[in-house]
Design a protein that fits this description.
With about 400 residues, this protein is α+β, with helices and mostly antiparallel strands.
Length: about 400
């Protein structure tokens, strides 16, 4: 294992007038910091294209992750999916990005726009090996990874985006690369970069895309761990073990919950101080506190529920970015630390039941707490974060 981690983000918009997107992105995590990302573009648009792209992405990602050869993958796709009668071709075009141990990336490309590669902030050429499999021309590349490398995969709705029928020759892959070069300086996450690119395409289409548009970005970052302590242990005798393990980990620290922070305060022999946030609309999020040796102390379930909603939105529509990216409340700060800073998130979750939460008239109970953790973990994993959970 090296000290790199892959930040993965993607965004799609539908062809104007269609309810479903004809592009599909699938991510399969493997062992040893390896994963397979597939972007498939179905023939046409709408329901048929959505089915074709989804099947293509699922089949390829599963087979590549299982170690099957490229020939077997393409042959399976050719034999599995139906032929489009109007075009005389089957299935979807696809781009595969396979990250191996965070040390190399393998690119497998069939008929999608070429993957753009940025190194040290500059668009960089890379070698491609041509293969003909089942009559299809496939390009293969293998590139050693470095911190800061950015790879941009996209469907053909991205380049030449235009309100008119003709191609927009002022928005070529080269121009897209220059666009990413400029915006990447600001330090956006992979999801942020993908959102900016797709939103720019949507503007060029005048808000009515003439094709499905998808951008999927992989950004290599230095590994940064984040440790989150959420709730006291079910057995009070486990408190010392929980604290010892939590504080032995490297990285930034967050503690969520009043009882939990009190246990940490006694263990550290340091006082908890309330922080007053001035000129900031904290809304319905409880106030934060500070504790020496910990980066952030917040309330528990209400704050983490807000974090869960922010992360759920980020993974899908990313409509709430302007809210959590600037506010100073506990939920916004935790969201920024999880999404924009951390590559590895370690949860230390206590199973103790809060007597205040057992009132059936209250919306908060033990199951809600566990579901919040589960939802956050699943969404973080879906964007390439390395997540562990230890229960006490």
């Amino acid at each position: 294992m090296n000290d790199l981690s892959a930040d993965i983000g993607y965004k799609s918009i539908n062809h104007a007038g269609e309810q479903l997107c004809g592009d599909h992105v699938d991510i399969v995590e493997q062992d040893d910091d390896s994963m397979v990302i597939v972007l498939a573009d179905g023939m046409g648009s709408g329901v048929k294209a959505s089915i074709l792209s989804t099947l293509t992405a699922k089949i390829i990602s599963t087979m590549v992750a299982a170690g099957m050869s490229l020939d077997e993958c393409v042959e399976t796709i050719a034999k599995t999916l139906p032929i489009d009668k109007s075009h005389g071709v089957a299935y979807a075009t696809f781009t595969v990005m396979r990250i191996v141990a965070n040390e190399t990336i393998e690119l497998i490309q069939y008929d999608n726009p070429d993957v753009l590669f940025l190194r040290n902030g500059q668009s960089t050429e890379y070698e491609k090996t041509k293969n003909v499999i089942e009559g299809k021309t496939i390009f293969y590349s293998k590139i050693p990874l470095q911190e800061g490398d950015i790879f941009v995969a996209m469907s053909d709705g991205c380049p030449y985006a235009n309100k008119e029928e003709a191609y927009n020759m002022n928005w070529s892959p080269k121009d897209i690369a220059e666009f990413i070069e400029i915006v990447s300086i600001a330090g956006y996450t992979a999801k942020g970069l993908a959102s900016l690119l797709v939103d720019e395409c949507n503007k060029l289409y005048g808000g009515e895309p003439r094709d499905d548009v998808t951008a999927c970005i992989v950004q290599m970052r230095k590994r940064i761990p984040l440790n989150i302590l959420f709730g006291p242990p079910a057995n009070r005798n486990d408190s010392e073990r929980m604290m010892r393990l939590y504080f032995s980990k490297e990285g930034r620290r967050i503690i969520c919950g009043g009882t939990t922070s009190s246990i940490a305060s006694r263990w550290l022999d340091k006082p908890i101080r309330s922080d007053i946030v001035i000129n900031d609309d904290i809304g319905d999020v409880p106030p934060i506190a500070s504790l020496e040796g910990v980066d952030l102390v917040t309330e528990g379930v209400i704050t983490m529920s807000k974090v869960a909603s922010y992360i759920e939105d980020y993974v899908h529509d990313n409509q709430l970015y302007d809210e959590w990216s600037r506010k100073k409340d506990g939920a916004s700060r935790i969201t920024r630390m999880m999404l924009e800073e951390a590559t590895d998130v370690h949860f230390f979750v206590g199973r103790a039941k809060n007597p205040m939460h057992q009132n059936p008239d209250l919306p908060i109970n033990f199951n809600v707490k566990m579901n919040i953790v589960k939802e956050i973990v699943e969404n973080l994993k879906s964007i390439g974060k390395k997540v562990t959970v230890i229960y006490f």
